[in-house]
Amino acid sequence: MRQRAESGKKLQQETINQDFTLQPLGMPRKAAWRRSAPVGLSNHGMAVSSSRPWRGRADPFAVVAAPSGSRLPEQQKTSESPLSWFRGVYLPPALHPLNKTFVKGGEWQDIDSTQEKRRAFLQDFCRKYNSRKKLQTHLVHLVSRIYVEDRHKVLYCEVPKAGCSNWKRVLMVLSGLAASANNISHDDVHYGKHLRKLDSYDLKGIYTRLNMYTKFIFVRDPMERLVSAFRDKFEHPNSYYHPVFGKAIIKKYRQNADEESLQTGSGVKFKEFIQYLLDSHRPIGMDIHWEQVSKLCYPCLINYDFIGKFETLEEDANYFLQLVGAPANLKFPKFKDRHSSDERTSTEVVRQYLKELSKEERQLTYDFYYLDYLMFNYTSPLV
C-alpha cells in the first residue's frame, strides 16, 4: 500500500511538471479503440486502454463493490451469499426506441432529432470503449442514485447541479404526492424522503424496472457544474459543507490559517477546493455534487433512453414529460431552487473562477472530468 501511494504521488508530480496541451474532444488520447459488443448493451464493465496514464487514479470506468453498509432487501440478506452479488449482473440488453405515442404537435421535431443524436453519440462512445472486464459490482451500488416513479414508469438518475431539485419536484407531482411543483420546498425535496430509489427494491424489482421503464438523465458542462457546486456549498452559509468539508480543506491546503477559519470551515477559496479535488490523498472523501457523472450514473452500463442537458433544460424537460404521458398542465419549473438573487453560473462566471488556478491546475481539473466531456460531447474548456 505504501509503495502504491508513493508511486501515485510520483506520477502526480511528473504530471504537474510536464507540458500541457489539450487534445481535441471526441477522440481519446492515443486510445486503443476496440470494436466489439456495445457496452451497456451487454454484461461487461468498462476500461480505457490508453498510453496516457490516468493521473494515478483507478480505472475510470471500473465499478467498485458497494461498501458493506449498502442496503439490501432483508430477504436477500438472509437467502443469498453476498458473493453472489458480484457475479452475473446482466443489465438491460439493448437500447430501445423512445415511445412517442403521447407526443402531440410538430414543434418537438428539432428537440427529438437532437435527442436521437445524443443517444447515438453516447452509444457509439460506449461501444468504442468496450472492455474485456466482467462487470463486478453490487447491483445495489450501480443503481443507488436512480429515483423511481411507478405511475409513469420512469427512472431518473440524479446529477446534482443539473436541475435535480426541480426534477425531484416533478417526480413528486407525477407520483401524486403533490399537486404542483411550485409549492414544494427545498427541504421537502431533499430531506423529505418522499421518493423511492431503485436500490430499495428487491432484485426482481430492480431488473424489471431497468428493463421496462424509461430511464433518463440530465447532465451539464462539467466545469459549470463544478463551479456551481462550489458557489452553492462554500460561498453561502452551510451547516454541513463548512464544518465537514471546509474545515478539512482549510486545515490541509491553507498556510497560516487563522483560528476562526479552522474552527468554522467558512471562506474556502476556489483554488483550495481544487487542490482538494485533485488530491489523491484527500482529507475527506468525494461528494455527489462534484463527483463525475460517469461514477454517479454509469452511462455506459445503464442504457439511458433520454439524455437531457442543463443548457437546454426547459425544452428537453418538457419534451420528456410529453414522451411519458405527463398531465398536460405539468411544465418543468423555471425557478432557481436556492440563492435566486445570485448570478447564474455561466460560461463567463466559470472563466472568472478558472483565472484563480494555474495552467496546470486547470488542465488537471479538465482531466478529472475528461470522461464526462467525452461521453456527452461537451466542448473542452480553454485552459
From TrEMBL:
Localization annotation: Golgi apparatus membrane
Chief localization: Golgi
Residue spans of biased composition, Basic and acidic residues class: 1-12
Keyword Repeat: no
A UniProt-annotated Pfam family: Sulfotransfer_2
UniProt keyword Transmembrane helix, yes or no: yes
Region (Disordered): 1-36
GO terms for biological process, alphabetical: carbohydrate biosynthetic process; proteoglycan biosynthetic process
Membrane topology recorded in Swiss-Prot or TrEMBL: Single-pass type II membrane protein
GO cellular component: Golgi membrane
Sequence similarity: Belongs to the sulfotransferase 2 family.
Protein name: Carbohydrate sulfotransferase
Record organism: Junco hyemalis (Dark-eyed junco)
Lineage, highest ranks first: Eukaryota, Metazoa, Chordata, Craniata, Vertebrata
